[in-house]
Amino acid sequence: MSAAPVKSESAATGPAEPAAKPRRAGLFRTAWGFGRTKVGVVLTAAIVLIALFGPYISPHTDTALVAEPYVTSADGSPFGTDYLGRDVFSRFLYGGQILLLLAASAALFGTLAGTVLGIVAGYRRGWLDELIMRTNDILLAFPQLIAALLIMSIIGPQAWLIVVIIGVTHMPRVARVIREATLRIVEQDFVKSAEAIGVPRWKIMVREILPNVTSPLLVELGLRLTYSIGIVAVLGFLGMGLQPPDADWGLMINENRLAITVQPWAVALPVAAVAVLTIGANLITDGLSRASIGIDRGVEK
Amino acid sequence: MIRLIINRLFFGLVTLFAVSLIVFLATQALPGDAASAILGRDATPERLTALREQLNLGDPVAVQYGKWLLAALTLDFGTSFASGYPVAEYLAPRLSNSLWLMAFAAIIGTPLALALGSFSAMRRDRGVDHATSMVTLVLASLPEFVVGIVLILIFSTGWLSLFPPIFAGGSGAVWQYPGQLVLPVLTLVIAVSPPIIRMMRASMIEVLESEYVQQARLKGLPEKTVIRRHAAPNAIGPVAQVIALQLAWLAGGVVAIEYLFRFPGIGLALMDAIDARDIPLIQAVVLLIAGVYIVVNLLADIVGLAANPKVRVSAK
Amino acid sequence: MSTSTTDDHRSDEAAALDIDGVTVIGRPSDVEIISGISLSVPRGRILGLVGESGSGKTTLGLALLAHCKRATEITAGSIRIGTTDLLAGTAAEVRALRGRGVAYIPQSPASALNPALRLRTQLREALFESDDAAARVREVLREVALPDDDAFLDRYPHQLSGGQQQRVAIAMAFIGRPDLIVLDEPTTGLDVTTQAHVLATIRSMTRTYGTAGVYISHDMAVVADLADEIAVMYQGEVVERGPGSRLLSAPEHPYTMQLLRAVPLLKTDGGDHPADEAKTPVLTVRGLEAGYGRTNVLKDIDIEVAPGDCVALLGESGSGKTTLSRSIVGLHHQFGGEVVFDGAQLAPSSYRRTAEQRRRVQYIFQNPYEALNPRKRVRDLILQPYAHLTGGKVADPDSVVATALERAALPAAYGERFPEQLSGGERQRVCIARAIATKPDLLICDEITSALDVSVQAEIVELLRNLQNDGMALLFVTHNIALVSNIAQYVAILNSGRIVEYGPVGTVLSDPQHEYTRALIADTPDFELTFADSPMHKSIRAAEKEHTAVEGGTKRPE
């Protein structure tokens, strides 16, 4: 921009001090400093533990009929039974595993693919950038849920399909963010410096650019994870996710919602699990993003 | 500026075209016999023949698409398999219901969000600001149907049976049943507002820290003038994009909400169509939702261009 | 041309500004940003406030309007404008005084003018008496030599040039006829000619209105030119203060001396004489044309650089100097003409050049804060390009790093640091170490000192001179004419994409042929430095064989 002095040189105008300034804390350490991040980690960990180990401590299996349908509590069923008479608590303990697995794979897949596209588009520019971004615009015109419903209405609800569709719909959104971050990095002279000595393009992308977009990358991963959980759950809720008789939080809500006034537990329990999980994931993401703003600008807060 | 707008319009059209192609390919150009794939176990020879006829399956794919697109351009999406009505006729009242729902949510949500965001920014780092930040963060995390169910659990069950858990209005326009609209609209407002609040807050803070606001204060202007004339107009610009994104999101977001509240709009129509494998209906609803999305974003782009004096003036 | 000063800073005229013991601290750390500053400025006089980055000069400037940046706070002292104490007043009283009692001219008018409001609105609102406001707006516009018609008033800030924007900011400050005006580096980012016009405007406006001024700058030459009295700030304190002529001739504080020594002085007589025998140039540029898309930014460029020589490429922003240097190194591809390095034509793209060619031509970038990958240690920053250019395995990596750092005058222990742990000057040294590790024959320096404070700049120039003595050829790109006279043997003056003058530095600067060169020298603010010679000037003179140092027309621009 201008030839003005860029940054504070602080005390460096005096005689050179031999002691090195300490390095700034990394992204995770900075993020951990925020109270909300800790709360997020606790909430997320609680639900993840329930999802992972729930089936081992469950009083019944997820499909066993234990009492009359829609009773609010029974012997061995503290939260009552669902529309078929299965134990709500057991189904709750069983119902998170697949959801977490699907959401995590979709978020990971979408973020990775989006990062590759974003870096390539942002660094190579030209027709490749144009092609990637225009394709993105088209994909972006489908709200994620609508895209998933459209495809699954034709092919039918399948677990792998859920991962692919959510991943593919995350991709353009991630690519957009990473491309912006890449553009900011590419403008900087250390990239030109590598080009001037002829470092291969792929090496520049991997060594110079990628390490400098890790902050937005992690924030995106967190955000995509939050959204993935939401979409997997809503698909289950719409009956387009896991199919009966599997236990799944989204499906549980769908199956029992008509009796919400009679037996609220069958809906409230899975809803609470999804809510706590998304809130936890988003709190962590927010902590990361606050930390990354501070780190990227080189200032605190 | 005119050239920029024409450019955007052109890309909007191209996108819409591409979207129609994807919808067509995804639903109709399936490998093998689309008709038997669609009908599945319900396939009888007569139904298969009828379906092949309606979808022009005898023609090459390109011709099928051409015929389908031309018909769609005249709002002729064919006949609904399930109801037997022409799709357009079937969807019209539902579309109007959905638009009412979205309009209520937008009209209530947007100004509220802008005001809350600015308010929070002006009280930066104080109690109100922290509270707003936490609440919006939590609300922004929740999938929209979770918000809806929590509202139902609070307002429709137990002692507080204030509003009905499902929409049970009779015939006629939906706004004739305000009591039944409260929960669906409230759900959408809560789902749509948090990102706008957060963006408005961030944008306002950035503007308040800007040198031109500092300069306005150093000129000795009263704080009210500084905010109204210098800060607010510049802060809203970047938020317009987010507002557009959120309003466009509404088009897809209504699906789960309408399903939850059994609200007779296009979202519920889509879910029913999926149940019945009613291809023409699915195609029409998805096209509609994508179309709304594209148009809203286009409008936001154009408004953004027109509001920026740099673009408006320099490109005579 | 130095400003004459009367030695009466304890004048009995009523002071327009009188501050006492002003302290500003940062929150929440409670570190004092400025501590216990006392100053006074009589009506009609200008006080120059000089300091390098981080000295607290802008904080003090804002405090004069009782304004604090976020997370800072004025904790002690009094600020009297005329007879009113700003710090004792209520918010409403302070506001009433701003614009009328004291006004502020910002560093960067481009960001201090509201982009969404017309000039008319922004000028009118700065004026509080409502009768005949329109006439007053027009009057003050004429005074700063801007058009006063409706068409101009209807413009938005982005439709003005940088110089015009700064004049609007000046008009806005003077419109309410304040007693005191605070100018915070108002000419930074302007080219020399525009700067000269803006300074002239400021001088005549303060004279017309009898306004007292506080002129904040890092640029000693500008301050010497404009101010009646100079205060030098260092680490939040005023370390020395006195009439300009006294401060420049007999500085008392060691920091003032250090600062003055570091300022490169424009030598228009004598200058460095290149060696007599004709050397074979290592780089020859002939008939180079370059552009972006259809616009041509460079035409008919001819330059030669011989080993051990430094050729300066002098031009203001937009002259095409960076395009030229980037074409030579292979970062700008769209050019035609000959670029011959050691007898072989260079391909436009660095990727088409041989590894040997890339190794022998190295480039150092303007901004050391952006030229180093923040995620790598200094060691890797030096080693990775080295390994790439010398083909794979490095036999003794430790000695490569140590040698490179040593030549750039950095301790070997710096190899383990990350860029964020280094100061700006140290970063630029690392960039130099990275470039010279591969033992290049030609070093292209693109404005490498413009992001640094003067004292750091002097050290970097010293370092470059040592490299040159070792036989390296330098192409030194700059906008700073004084710097040219202190480092280069040859100078090419670039104006709007053409070289308007090219020759030995001494010849060109003492007897400029082209009117652009003459204007450039005339517009560069100058001051006389009559105290002990600076090391920077000494060393170059040691290199001169016949010419002894003469403190001639000493000048220094920004």
Write structural notes for this entry.
The complex is a heterotrimer of chains A (301), B (316) and C (558). Chain A contains 12 helices and no strands. Chain A has 2 domains: 29-95 and 247-301, no CATH class; 96-243, MetI-like (MetI-like fold). In chain A, helix 10 packs parallel to helix 11. Chain A is elongated and about 75 Å long. Helices cover 67% and strands 0% of the residues of chain A. With 316 residues, chain B is mostly helical. Chain B has a domain at 91-277: MetI-like fold. Chain B contains 13 helices and no strands. Chain B has helices at 2-27, 34-39, 45-54, 61-73, 87-122, 127-141, 144-155, 178-208, 211-218, 223-261, 266-275, 279-307, 309-314. With 558 residues, chain C is α/β, with parallel strands linked by helices. Chain C folds into 2 domains: 3-261, 3-Layer(aba) Sandwich (Rossmann fold); 283-525, P-loop containing nucleotide triphosphate hydrolases (Rossmann fold, 3-Layer(aba) Sandwich). Chain C has a 6-stranded mixed β-sheet with strand order 6-7-8-3-9-10, with helices on both faces. A 6-stranded mixed β-sheet of chain C has the order 16-17-18-13-19-20, sandwiched between helices. Chain C has a 4-stranded antiparallel β-sheet with strand order 2-1-4-5, covered by helices on one side. In chain C, helix 17 links the parallel strand 17 (442-446) and strand 18. Chain C is globular, with a radius of gyration of 25 Å. The relative contact order of chain C is 0.12. Mean pLDDT of chain C is 85; it is low at 1-12 and 532-558. Chains A and C meet through helix 8 of A and helix 13, helix 14 and helix 16 of C. Chain B: One of its GO terms (cellular component) is plasma membrane. Chain B: One of its GO terms (biological process) is transmembrane transport. Chain B: InterPro entries: BPD_transp_1_N, MetI-like, MetI-like_sf. Chain B: Belongs to the binding-protein-dependent transport system permease family. Chain B: Its main location: membrane. Chain A: Its main location: membrane.
